[in-house]
């Protein structure tokens, strides 16, 4: 049915569980997956402690390393299940828009993601990225709880 699944991930437990289920589903459908992690660009004024403590150059290095580590979890799961997997890091403040843009740009026919990732103040400030994807997507969205 679906041939190319986009897997947005933030590295949270719920996102990892969604990834595992989506990769197994991709195996059953003989689909490929693209994992995406969206990293906010450096800002001088921010609520994120990793930006407050770092220089822009150090933040870029550290955030890339974190993103690659998060994406390697998806890549490893795909390898174990025999699923073709690409991964992409995007720098943007607009997470849900980046997810939708990636789905369109990469010709994905399904977006599979967790119902929630961030919690606490970060979720309060940013709102639900999953809800925004559901609201605006032209591509079918499968939400894992």
TrEMBL record:
Database matches in InterPro entries: Rossmann-like_a/b/a_fold (IPR014729), Universal_stress_UspA (IPR006015), UspA (IPR006016)
GO CC terms of this entry: cytoplasm
Coiled coil segments of this chain: none
Keywords: Cytoplasm
Protein localization: Cytoplasm
UspA domain segment(s): 1-145
Any Pfam family matching the protein: Usp
Family statement: Belongs to the universal stress protein A family.
Name this polypeptide is given: Universal stress protein
Organism (species): Massilia cavernae
């Amino acid at each position: 049915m679906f041939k190319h699944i986009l897997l947005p991930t933030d590295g949270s437990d719920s996102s990892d569980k969604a990834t595992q289920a989506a990769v197994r589903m991709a195996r059953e459908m003989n689909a490929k997956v693209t994992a995406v992690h969206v990293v906010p660009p450096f800002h001088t004024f921010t609520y994120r402690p990793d930006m407050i403590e770092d220089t822009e150059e150090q933040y870029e290095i550290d955030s890339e390393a974190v993103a690659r580590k998060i994406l390697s979890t998806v890549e490893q799961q795909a390898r174990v299940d025999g699923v073709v997997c690409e991964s992409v890091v995007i720098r943007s403040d607009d997470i849900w828009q980046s997810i939708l843009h990636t789905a369109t740009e990469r010709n994905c026919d399904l977006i599979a993601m967790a119902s929630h990732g961030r919690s606490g103040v970060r979720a309060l400030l940013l709102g639900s990225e999953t809800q925004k994807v559901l609201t605006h997507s032209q591509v079918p969205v499968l939400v894992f709880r």
